[in-house]
Amino acid sequence: MYGPASSHFTVRDFTFGIYDRLLEAITENGYSVQTVAEHLETAEQPEKYVILRHDVDRKVDIARSMARLEAAHGIASTYYFRTSTFDPALAREMAGEGHEVGYHYEELARARGDRDRAHERFEAILESFRDHVDVTTACSHGSPLSRHLNLDMWDEDRPPESYDLLGEAYLSIETDDTDPALASYCSDTGRHWGLVDPTVGTVRTTDDVIALLESDACPRLYILAHPSRWSRSSGEFVERVGWDLAAEIGKQAARPAHRAQHGVTALASSAVQTTALPIRLSRQLTGLSTHDY
User: Fold this and answer.
1) What does the DSSP 8-state code read for residue 160?
2) Which residues contact 25 (CB under 8 A, 6 or more apart)?
């Protein structure tokens, strides 16, 4: 279980100052940056590339700031929106900056495992997104309180391509941390990057990711950065650390709750109570590099 003493939960990280340095490391070390759609459309991949993706689970304003920062670096990435975070005006703004906008779907969980209902809902929502912006890829959202994996809605008869999509962000991109011909996948889920590179070892912090890019040991990388994990100011940093720790504990507590659904409420309440401790910890941190955008 994640906790303040855990070696896996990285507290002093995930500020916009650090993200700015990450973008610089990508561009200054000769990496071609691709959206998910660009990657799927490219028949012959460049020698060095980074696929840059963002799942906008919440905190739309942070996603807007992140997109603007990337645009300032001349970088285009992919932003996947849930129905609860999709803003037509923002989607058009991001598309105007060169970013890809996609659908972060969770239909199978919402349909409680009913695939027919999931596909009906997926088609309707996808079309509503397309009323405002071009959508050519989709990406599954993790639904920790559901026992249904949203990726399981797809099969040979109804693949993502049947909805005039280039592909799905998980299913259509092959990754392998041990094969240099394929991209290594790293995500900030759980407030650590969770990559073990065969050359440089464990990649846990954003500084580790930057060092990996500078080492030239990993020519192909698939990065998932959740905007809601990153902070633009010290006050926002305090809030994000508290939220992340409570959310991670809640996710882990919910896993056995799928076998005992009546226990979810009590488990969630217990998880929320953990928020105070990481807030106290984060207020003790000094020397943070943060920017307002």
Assistant:
1) G
2) 209, 210, 213, 214
The confidence score (pLDDT) of residue 274 equals 41
Q: Is the pLDDT of residue 129 over 90?
A: yes
C-alpha 286/C-alpha 11 separation (Å) is: 12
Whether pLDDT at 288 is above 60 = no
User: Are 188 and 231 within 8 A, CB to CB?
Assistant: no
Q: Which tokens in the block code for residue 27?
A: 């561009």
In this structure, what token pair is assigned to residue 143? Answer: 């639904």
Tell me the C-alpha distance between 79 and 60, whole Å: 11
Do residues 243 and 275 lie in contact, with contact meaning Cβ atoms separated by under 8 Å? yes
Q: Encoding tokens for residue 46?
A: 């460049």
Q: Which residues of 207-244 are buried (b: 16+ CB within 10 A; e: fewer)?
A: bbbbebbeeeebbbbbbbbbbbbbbbeeebbbebbbbb
- Per-residue model confidence as pLDDT tens digits over 49-106: 999 999 999 999 999 999 999 999 999 999 999 999 999 999 999 999 999 999 999 9
Residues in Cβ contact with 49 at an 8 Å cutoff, skipping those fewer than 6 apart: 31, 32, 33, 34, 39, 183, 219, 220, 221
Residues 143, 151 contacting (CB under 8 angstroms):
no
> Following DSSP, what letter does each residue of 210-258 receive, concatenated?
HHHHHHTS-SEEEEE--GGG-BSSHHHHHHHHHHHHHHHHHHHHHHHHT
Tell me which architecture the domain covering 16-229 has in CATH: Alpha-Beta Barrel (3.20)
**What is the structure's pLDDT at 251?**
62
Burial letters for 150-178: b for 16+ Cβ neighbours within 10 Å, e otherwise?
A: beebbeeeeebeebebbbbbeebbeeebe
Q: What is the domain partition of the chain in residue ranges?
A: 16-229, 234-283
Instruction: Write out the two tokens for 71.
Output: 């645009």
Closest to 54 measured CA to CA, from 71, 69, 72, 35? 35
Residues 70 and 263: their CA atoms lie apart, in Å, by 42
Tell me if the pTM is above 0.90: no
